[in-house]
Amino acid sequence: MKIFFNMLLLLAVSSMYSQADLKGTITDKNTNAPIAFANVYIPQLEKGATSDEKGNFKITNIPNGTYKIVISYIGYQTLSQTIKSPYTDFLNISLSASAIEMEDVIISTPFHKLQSENVMKVEQETVANLKANGAVSLADGITNIAGVESVTTGVSIGKPVIRGLSSNRVLVYTQGVRLENQQFGDEHGLGLNDAGIESVEVIKGPASLLYGSDALGGVLYFNPEKFAANNTSAGDFSGNYFSNTQGYNTTAGYKSSDEHFKFLFRGSLAEHSDYKTKDYRVTNTRFREQDFKAGMGYQANRFKTELRYNLNNSKLGIPEELGEQSTNKAPLIPFQEITNHVFSSKSHVFLNNSSLDINLGFLYNDRKEFAEEPEVGNDPEAELHLKLKTFNYDVKYNLPTLGKFETIVGVQGMNQVNTNYGPEELIPDATTNDVGVLAVSHIHFDKADIQLGARYDNRNINVASGVKKDFNSFNGAFGVKTDIAENLTARVNLATGFRAPNLAELTSDGVHEGTNRYEIGNIDLTNEQNFQSDLALEYKNKHVEFYVNGFYNKINNYIFLSPNGTIIDGNPAFTYLQNDANLYGGEIGLHIHPHPIDWLHIESSFETVTGKQKNDTYLPLIPANSVSNMIRIEFEKTWLKKGYAFVKLKSTFAQNNVGTFETTTNGYNLLSAGLGGTFTLFKNEATVTLSGTNLTDETYINHLSRLKPDGIFNMGRNINIGFTYSL
Fold first, then answer.
1. CA angle, corner 102, sides to 101 and 105, nearest 5?
2. Phi and psi dihedrals of 545, rounded to 5?
3. How far apart are CA 103 and CA 118, in angstroms?
4. Domain 122-726, architecture per CATH
5. Which residue of 7, 133, 592, 656 is surrounded by the most CB atoms within 10 Å?
């Protein structure tokens, strides 16, 4: 390892003197008029500039090599262009007017292209937009993305579901590293706070080629907020109030950058009481969350690196039955106390026409679960106390572009240690080691783009009792994107994926607090292996967007929990079993912004998924089909910027295709609305938002709610008021 880092330093130092400047101008394609205040950005370097009143821009100190530049401005179609530095000519860029929203570079897939250029279909949404829709938490907010739902325990605990797959089948990335926080548990939530997160990207379908085990069903990739632009500083504070829970969340942050050094920090606090339905409050859905994020970056001519740290502490009530009706915010027994530490390092070395990416992470998850009232005068003691320490690494080498080929080779891995400290032991002390090697290429032709790759993975689990398990898998992927007609794009992706059984599925033997069941592992479990075919059609012109995504996912040796008919320690016993399964469905979407009233947006989407075992019985926890319809307007005034208003109706159909131990769920309709905008206050920008969800105060139960067996309704009417002030 020491030799490796010495070589890395040598590469950085030996090549730091080759650099150049990029100059150019930006104009309107139809009128040739200069465009002022357009953004020019080089994602690989995280450097950019803004055009002046004459449309001119300049980016300094660009190392020799090949880079992608992205040019964007509101009201124009985002443009992506590849340049080779040193670029000695004057760059003339023309933008086409368009009412379509600006595109961002996709970070979660290789080669960092715009979505319109990507072979894989990736959904991307800003956290600001999710919060504007009234989301109480990050796990709640992601359900606004088509094809994404959440298995919930109240409003504080949510596990992401992508096209019917959840838990360890969906991999979560934060700060560029994979998040590990004992996600095997039904009531183990996302464990992330939305403060300091800029956007989320969703890969639907097997992404094992890119990320290895646990990416069988897809990936949620959370992008942290960017550092301040060079030689600038910025600060902000904000607060949100939620009427239903009489809760709030607040955050404040500051960041500053010069030519080489950058830093940022952000703190936040959230507290909520029990959420209210039309008829009652749901006892012990209250929670408190504290979050702190910090980052430091350094950038030289051919080397850049950043260090980030996130500390999150949550106390989450676990609801069991209706009881105390109050607006207290301190959780009752049972509750979880979870502390997450995430340390990450992300470095990039620029070589001549090639580059090296090195991402390192260390995660420390301290999970305590309290289930019994303490004696008078004593503090509660955790029955279940687990500490999970994870070190992961991801090293990729971007080979020099060879003709039409862009190629990446890499190695990824993880070392993970699980240790028990409580009186009860659900899963044993154990060490897990992962290692994987991959190669992926993007081939650009005049009429099509192709992406293909292959990967090999090994997982080794050593249990303290002496049990050792090894799992191996080869996986591959092939995709093609092509324009089959004017404004009509097709994407076809074929991919295999796998998931090695986790420690709980193999070795659990005990009562899982909060789930009220005794779980028994199965040491003979084998890999889950799947093959998914995915077809996406997208039509887009200046005023209409329409897409159809369809998928078929075949999973061999699907792992699931099933009751075995016995009672242990007063709890029903559940055993892990395997059977083949199939999932299929997709999403349809329509977005109209008619000419000449481009400020009006009419958006509709439909999503469906069906999951069955080989014996033709339905899989559990499959989200019901749903339709969302929204009317949104955008407006600008002399005193108000980025103004918007929307009305949304989401109709969820009855779920009658249920697992063996599930009951059917009725359909329902949820009406929401909101408005907001930015204005100048004391010479700085202030943003105010107002939104309401479930405005008709409908009583309903989501099929993925873990409170459904007790007949407990989901949240009733909620009004959210938000305020952000930029310093």
1. 135
2. -125, 135
3. 12
4. Beta Barrel (2.40)
5. 133
Residues of the chain with CATH 2.60.40.1120: 2-98
| DSSP 8-state symbol, 320 | -
How far is the C-alpha of 25 from the C-alpha of 504, rounded, in Å? 58
Q: What is the largest CA-CA distance in the chain?
A: 78
Q: How far apart are CA 334 and CA 700, in angstroms?
A: 25
Q: Model's pTM, two decimal places? A: 0.91
Model confidence pLDDT, tens digit, residues 259-303: 889 999 999 999 999 999 999 999 999 999 999 999 999 988 788
What's the DSSP call for residue 437?
E
Q: What one-letter code names the amino acid at 332?
A: L
Identify the pLDDT of residue 15: 41
Which tens digit of pLDDT belongs to each residue from 479-509? 999 999 888 999 999 999 999 998 888 988 8
Per-residue CA distances from 142 to 127, 133, 167, 263, 357 (Å): 9, 11, 15, 28, 28
Confidence of residue 52 (pLDDT cuts 50, 70, 90): confident
Please name every residue paired with 270 in a beta bridge, in sequence order, or none if there are none.
249, 289
Determine if residue 557 is left, alpha or beta; phi over 0 gives left, psi from -120 to 50 gives alpha, anything else beta: left
What residue has token string 């739902």? 149
Q: Which residues pair with 158 in a beta bridge?
A: 152
Task: Measure the CA–CA gap between 555 and 566, rounded to whole angstroms.
Answer: 29
Banded model confidence at residue 514, pLDDT cuts 50, 70, 90: low
How is domain 2-98 classified at the CATH fold level?
Immunoglobulin-like (2.60.40)
Q: Which residue has the higher pLDDT, 516 or 509?
A: 509
Would strands 571-592 and 517-520 be described as parallel, antiparallel, or unpaired?
parallel
Tokens representing residue 697 in the block: 């105060």
